[in-house]
Design goal:
Elements: H1 3-14, E1 17-25, E2 28-34, H2 41-44, H3 60-68, H4 74-77, H5 83-93, H6 96-101, E3 104-108, E4 123-127, E5 136-142, E6 148-155, E7 166-177, E8 183-188
Antiparallel strand pairs: 1-2, 1-7, 3-4, 3-7, 4-5, 5-6, 7-8
Amino acid sequence: MDLLQKSAAVFERLIGYQYQFTLGRKGKLKEIILGFGETDFHHLAGLHKLRDISIARENRQAVFRDILAGHITYQTIEKSIFVSESLSRLEAFQFIEDLLDGEQLVFRFNKKVLPYSSIDGEFLLKMGDGILLNISFLFIDKEDCGNYFCRSFFPMERTDYTKNQMQYTLLKKEKIHLGSGKIIIQYDRLTPKAAKKEEC
């Protein structure tokens, strides 16, 4: 399994989950439910940047499924002269679930702070510790249903996109398996810890 297929397989697993973030700022709570869909992979993996080959313009869901089936491989996208732009994303993206399961800082993204950037998104997650996992950025946006989806992802190179952005405090994070409904609480500052019973 090459780097492209591995990244797609990791994302396929994520499609079976949602993350629920409870954020706080100035006494107000904000809840974000983050889900994943097959069509999201194309942009997150940087395949849209391979504009000199057809994969950049093909149906995104079909491309994702062809990658999983082994019909499209990393060797396929190496034909593009822009493949290096996708490579750095894929090298970080193979760890996307580990990044989401770990610690992150959450910011409301104000595009006006970066007037020369074409990036869109309502919120920005800064993930990774810079040691075991490279620091990476995940931009998320709201769907019509009110839940959030992943709009863009890439590792930090020179620009820290969180600079001068409004930060929220992460109060609780849950990982929910959609098939079983099982909830894994990954972080919790909201629920009071049960009082310890006094020893007799």
